[in-house]
Amino acid sequence: MASSAASSSAASSSAASSSAAASAEQPRSRNFLLCPICKKTHWSLPVHLRRSCMRTSSEADILAVVESAKRVVSNLLRTGRVWEYSLLSRIMQSPDTIGRMIEELESRGNAVVGIPTEAPTAAVPAVPDVPVEAPAESSSESSGELYQCPDTTKQGTSLRERMASLGYYKKHSLDHDLLVSFAKFLQFDMSNENFKQEVENVARFLYFMDPQQASLLFVRQHEKSREYFLKLSEAGLSKQTVQNYIKSVKRFLKFHTGSTDLCFTDRVLHEDCKNYISFLDNIQTATSKQVSKETTRKRFDTFQEGVLSSTQVTAVLAAAKKDFLAVIGKLHAGECSPGHQLTLTELQLVLYYLEAIVILEHAQRPGVVEHMTVTEWISRRRDDTRPGFVVVAVKEHKTAATQVATFVLTQEQEMWFDLYFSEVRPVMLGKKRKRVEDDDETDERFFISSTGKAIYNASNDLERLHKKYQVPKVTSQMARRAYKTATKELSDVQKTKVAGYLTHSTATAEKHYRMKERGSAVDAFLILRNLRGDSDSDQSDTPRGSSAYLTDQAAYDKLLRSYPVTLDGVPPNRSQRKSLAGEYERYCYDRWRSEQLERRVQHVLEHFARRLPSESRVKAWIMKQGWSANLPDAASIVQQWKPSGGIDVAMDSVVLQKFCRTQRWKGLAVADIEGKGRGVLVTRPFALGEVVCDYHGKVVSRQEGLATHTATAEKESGQPRSRNFLLCPICKKTHWSLPVHLRRSCMRTSSEADILAVVESAKRAVSNLLRTGRVWEYSLLSRIMQSPDTIGRMIEELESRGNAVVGIPTEAPTAAVPAVPDVPVEAPAESSSESSGELYQCPDTTKQGTSLRERMASLGYYKKHSLDHDLLVSFAKFLQFDMSNENFKQEVENVARFLYFMDPQQASLLFVRQHEKSREYFLKLSEAGLSKQTVQNYIKSVKRFLKFHTGSTDLCFTDRVLHEDCKNYISFLDNIQMATSKQVSKETTRKRFDTFQEGVLSSTQVTAVLAAAKKDFLAVIGKLHAGECSPGHQLTLTELQLVLYYLEAIVILEHAQRPGVVEHMTVTEWISRRRDDTRPGFVVVAVKEHKTAATFVLTQEQEMWFDLYFSEVRPVMLGKKRKRVEDDDETDERFFISSTGKAIYNAYNDLERLHKKYQVPKVTSQMARRAYETATKELSDVQKTKVAGYLTHSTATAEKHYRMKEIGSAVDAFLILRNLRGDSDSDQSDTPRGSSAYLTDKLLRSYPVTLDGVPPNRSRRRCPGGTTWRWGPPYVESARLRPGAHSGLRDGRSHCSSWTYTVAHGSLRVC
């Protein structure tokens, strides 16, 4: 009876949770409503009215206002969003334009604020004297000041209260044109996350300088400006904070002087602004000494306090651990459904404790906590050699521009973090009020505050934890300082690892271009743990590199090679272990059995994946496996059992299939429920994800289920769910049911996914309109009415707020920008197999469902002026001949596209007077999907174009004014480059983060495609070598390409050279290859035209392959070329020729095709070089130097690129790389000089190769070792050897080779 009651209770709670989950899936919609009193929109208008605007009114009056606001919203969404063009035209032509516009807006349910009592006479209305308003942030967030150090004891009030009482928080509207453009510059050009704070600082400064109107005229008031900064200091702001105010104003002026058209519209004011910047420089210089004194005082206080011990750093963790583990125990034992029965205090404790682990125990900056994402947590990687540790990498933090932050978690800590992620975090997210603009960012953040938003300030959370447990406060800086000081006695290697773990930009930390390894992160973590004096060390905690770790690990690895751990295996006996592991045989035995037991437990759990088994069933199944020893404990398996495996394969289990046949599901009972009929009750607890039973009813989709739930809820409550009128973006009409309308009319041929995407976009537009689009600033309307294109600006503003304008005549422009003539879209002329026409292109093919090139072409960004224009022709010649730029065509095309955007009618230099439009162009390139590095290359091309015309033409004499404007424009481009450099760094960091997640490839993975293709390649080589075909002409195109691609892959993957080596290698460089004097089995090829001078080494076999390509395949490739005068010399000189008869354009593409053909994971040049570089970490410095030289790295240990590389060093480096790859194919080239393998030079001294000579007979060619050597290439030496046509000089012998050279007037085939 008790069991039945418990089951009923469980079923009820299950039903309740299901209902709650369904309701969470489909929340009741709520609109932002406009308060008619304060003219602001609110998420919950009744609450706002009760607390603020109508707190003295009756409940009936409040409800009446709310109902009225709802009706206004309904009317607005139904009829107020669509504007007739004719109506706007009549308003703009009326005598009182702005008054008529206000009247029309208010009649449609909008509100206009900031209306002055008298009509303004200036372009910008004076701001009325509003009451002092303190910043809206709560006390838990920042004070609004950068680097704020408040002195709360001064005058008995807080700093913020004092600033507000003195009026220093008064500011101009942030919608002013000067501030709006500055905000966009900070947000998009500078990628400044704190841009709102900087704009507010400037708005306050402008208000102090002129409370009536925001303008740039303050630059003529130096004394008043100095007075403002002095008053800030007197109010209690630190000197550093005052410096930040000055920096904000300075950046504001630099933007308007260097990135707008101010220098052309008002040259006098422009000059005054430049003088004011110099004035600010003087103030900064004067206050820098005071800032230094403040810093010194802080350091002195730190010195007096002393450096904390590791115990003091982690004291709060020790104090809170008992309570924390109690909460973790609740979650782990399954006492509550995912986090829902925990109190808010318990939820916060879990959050704060985990933040403290990252900041205090792992000495990471608070930015790591604030920016860590869900993706980064899911992508955590386990250390290969010490699987007890996982490494989490975070790319967005303070030094993210140069390094990726990593921290290491033990198994226990990983379990805590995972419980937070799966149990606590969803509850935190459930407390969030849904807002469209922050959903994506908040949902992606790993750490979520109790308000449902991303963590704003981790330092505050840390302070709350210290305060709760009454422990002295420890900040991130104090913790990092303590660990840094504790490392002073360590070795340089250990210091380097710790510096990398703390992401210090020190000389001891690894350079940012090197690969950060998971093993190094674990080593650093273990070092820090030893410094803390933690006693919980295990076998895997011994730092890698110590003698203990290397000894026992090496012994165990050796044992595993002979006796690998398997499910049914038997451990080696004592004598076998002794012979392999020596004194570590017992350690290896225990570890071997432990790993086997873990595998067996996992095997049992996988068998019982979806239904909780009984202990007897587990024991019986274990006995069936035939294991005689090292048996898993059935009771512990049942106790730790959890459902596993995917839902899709759950019913593949034999046990579940048996239950489906017999319908005897254990743990369930059928009973009669009063008022409901017969129902199913549970008789035991079921774990989350466990299969309860199979379902025999109709299967419906998620959408159908939600629709049914909604309809049922409406019938039961009698309160239909509210629905908004949505605007169709195609027909520009509002509809009660937009999905139905789209399916029946505007999108009847589109897919359901496309329709739902349009509906979601319409819902977001409604949400934005109701939240922010209904309140209009009077100053904004005033500026629109006084703009040159009034109606166009008004249409633009209305549409940006989610409205639609219909009936626009075709001849009427819709914006202030002049219409561009309709020019046919021309895609770049290159084929798809070549580059996209963008330097360093990183296309985002997922955006808008089209490729980057298609998107650029559709937006018109590939339109360009003719390259025959005088400006472009002279620039092209300069790049080609003066700069020797091989990619000059691409640069000229970039400039031609830019000039077309600036003026589609004519290419000229007058664009230098259009700074704002220029910035718009570069922003549009970024929005189209180009990487920031590619946009930087566009800027560089335009900058070089201008430098050419200002410094290499007569412009300075023919038009001095334009020449000066060009120089100003170059400074403007410099500012943009500086602004985007941070974004480029972030892109680089993202790439490094992806690289870190991928890990370093092994040498086998690097050369996998060579192994896969070798059989086919050798078959083709065999045809050529056996003389089965005239030079290459009977080979198919596929076979010719295979030879080409394979040889390219050898250079790039096996020899770790850059693709530029393949693309620029010449015939002369091949013919001039040098043989190593001491090891003649190797030849060294030097290539001078690439990033730096490069060399690579070929074995005898590889040299034969390359020479066969040169003499047999390459002439056929050249024969496929369409003759063009201008490129004959260049193509004929290139060694590698594509199947089109031209020089190789992009070796990356050839390498990618080879991987694709043999279905091998793609490996790039960078991945191969990174793998070899990482593999050299254990080598000596001399070996590292040689490898660095072989890889042509610009390091201090590598030889300078302008020095002659020694052939012997190149061969040494090649042999080192071959050993790192583990190649076993040693040939005679490794034999010491003096053996029979090296007697070939002796043969040449007796029988030199000549045109009319006869090769020595077999007996004379016999070497002492019995080897017969061929007389001919690669030992033919001539300074003027060139490839030539096939000759019929063949002596008919079976061993005759097919080497062909042209010397003087004849052809020679030698054997």
Describe this structure in a few short sentences:
The chain has 1311 residues and is mainly α. The protein has 54 helices and 18 strands. Strands 5-6-7 form a three-stranded antiparallel beta sheet.
Can you walk through the features of this model?
- The chain is built from 54 helices and 18 strands.
- By secondary structure, the chain is mainly alpha-helical.
- A hairpin with a 7-residue loop joins strand 14 and strand 15.
List keywords for this structure.
5% strand; 3-stranded antiparallel β-sheet; globular; 18 strands; disordered N terminus; 1311 residues; mainly alpha
> Distance N terminus to C terminus?
100 Å
The outline comes out as globular
Mean pLDDT: 75
What strand line-up does the widest sheet have? 5-6-7
Report Rg.
38 Å
Helical proportion? 40-55%
Strand percentage lies at: 5-15%
Beta-strand segment tally: 18
How many DSSP H or I helices? 54
Structural class: mainly alpha
Low-confidence stretches: 1-28, 118-156, 433-439, 506-516, 536-550, 714-721, 811-849, 1195-1206, 1225-1241, 1263-1311
The main pleated sheet reads as: 3 strands, antiparallel
List the helices and strands and how they pair.
Elements: H1 2-25, E1 33-34, E2 41-42, H2 45-53, H3 59-80, E3 82-84, H4 85-93, H5 97-107, E4 111-113, H6 159-165, H7 177-189, H8 195-209, H9 222-235, H10 239-258, H11 262-265, H12 267-305, H13 310-313, H14 315-332, H15 344-361, H16 366-371, H17 374-378, E5 381-382, E6 389-394, E7 405-410, H18 411-430, H19 439-444, H20 458-468, H21 476-486, H22 492-501, H23 518-532, H24 547-562, H25 574-581, H26 585-607, H27 615-624, H28 634-640, H29 654-662, E8 668-673, E9 677-682, H30 702-717, E10 726-727, E11 734-735, H31 738-746, H32 752-773, E12 775-777, H33 778-785, H34 790-800, E13 804-806, H35 852-858, H36 870-882, H37 888-902, H38 915-928, H39 932-951, H40 955-958, H41 960-998, H42 1003-1006, H43 1008-1025, H44 1037-1054, H45 1059-1064, H46 1067-1071, E14 1074-1075, E15 1083-1087, E16 1094-1098, H47 1100-1119, H48 1128-1133, H49 1147-1157, H50 1165-1175, H51 1181-1190, H52 1207-1221, H53 1240-1246, H54 1258-1261, E17 1300-1303, E18 1306-1309
Parallel strand pairs: 3-13, 4-12
Antiparallel strand pairs: 1-2, 5-6, 6-7, 8-9, 10-11, 14-15, 15-16, 17-18
Helix pairs in contact: 2-3, 4-5, 7-8, 8-10, 10-12, 14-15, 15-18, 15-20, 22-23, 24-26, 25-26, 27-28, 31-32, 36-37, 37-39, 39-41, 43-44, 44-47, 44-49, 51-52
